[in-house]
Give the backbone structure.
Amino acid sequence: MNDNSTETAIESVSDKSSKSDSKQNKNNSSNKTLTILGIVACIILAPILILNIILIIQGFTVDSNSIPNIGGTFPLIVKSGSMSGTIETGDLMFAHTAEDTSAFKKGDIIVYWDKAEGGSLVTHRIIEVTKDDNGKLAYRTKGDANATADAKLVYPEKIIGTYQGRIAGLGNVALFMQTIPGLIICVILPLAIFVIYDILRRRHIQKSEQTEAAALMAEIEKLKSEKAKLESDSKN
């Protein structure tokens, strides 16, 4: 009878230990899921933040031959409809820096500085490769949606890069993210929610583990007490 009691107590401890391991496995699985979600969030947010940093720095880079870029590629927000049909207002456009700015040909879409626009970057198509009155190489440009060519010629030293592609509408998103409400909604708030949830989750797991450990230790102590009592009774 006493042996059966001891075996029952041992089985009870074993069952609780098994349940504890099962919960631990579930917690580990949950941790892995949240870790993956965190990595995905970082993968999504990191490029957006980098793009916005580059775009913000561009605002302070006026009429310069160098522009912030990653591997030669740099983003631009399209704010004009002069290239409508090819590039639309509100698009996020990508261009690549040009090493030889004297080798462009008719039909190429170039990005260049325009002092007449306050030192802004302009993206237009080359419609003619020509020379000015002094015999210097120059390009005549025109926006695809414009009725006439640009009034001034574009010289090679003013060219920053060439058009590579665009993501429709993403420029408007980037502009919104540069505002305080956009920064709060798109970056700070998601990060804050993730951090707070992770802290609360870790506290809950820690508390649960402590409760289970305390219950297991109490069961073990009970088992030891019963075993000691059985040994004492057998001696008597």
Q: What stands out?
A: The chain has two domains: 2-53+183-235, 62-168.
